[in-house]
């Protein structure tokens, strides 16, 4: 399905289901947000890396206006909804708009059983990683999520860097997204375990950050 929506390039990756707070201060984006609020319409966020923006993004619906300032600025919360690819960008108006084509995950060769197996492996990995950082996750809640929703929830976490988040946004394979989470979690676990082991050897007061940079 194709549609024309406002576009907001940002240095973040929005994923479906993700809550994102935004401080709207530029005039063109104030106008964009006002339009979206009046029309009850979403706008699209595409990742801007400082030189160009990606061709795949995610629409966001304004779920809350936290504060309105006298000068027109706003603090808002948006929730990620549907993924899209940019078809044609129009910069002739007060703010960017684009014709976008929405897409979802496609059916894959991975069976439902295989996706559940991968989700379970990913759940165990992220729970272990959280415990290494003295955090506790709700295993029952994570296991109750379907593989697609779970994959987007974890992809939006701080465990994933911006490039990984963008790749997981772009892929139309749930299995690929779950594998990305498993691979990343295991890599970070190994790094964290090595860090803790070195602290035991060298002492808690040793600054060993340079070893991991």
Kindly describe this structure.
There is one protein chain. The chain is an alpha+beta fold. It has two domains: 2-103, Archaeosine Trna-guanine Transglycosylase, Chain: A, domain 4 (Roll); 112-205, Methane Monooxygenase Hydroxylase, Chain G, domain 1 (Up-down Bundle), CATH 1.20.58. Helix content is 41%, strand content 29%. Helix 2 packs parallel to helix 4 (147-155) and helix 4 crosses helix 6. The longest helix is centred in the C-terminal third of the chain and has 29 residues, at 174-202. It is globular. Mean pLDDT is 91; it is low at 208-213.
Question: What are the defining features of this structure?
Answer:
globular; Archaeosine Trna-guanine Transglycosylase, Chain: A, domain 4; 213 residues; alpha+beta; disordered C terminus; Methane Monooxygenase Hydroxylase, Chain G, domain 1; PUA-like_sf
Summarize this, please?
By secondary structure, the chain is of the alpha+beta class.
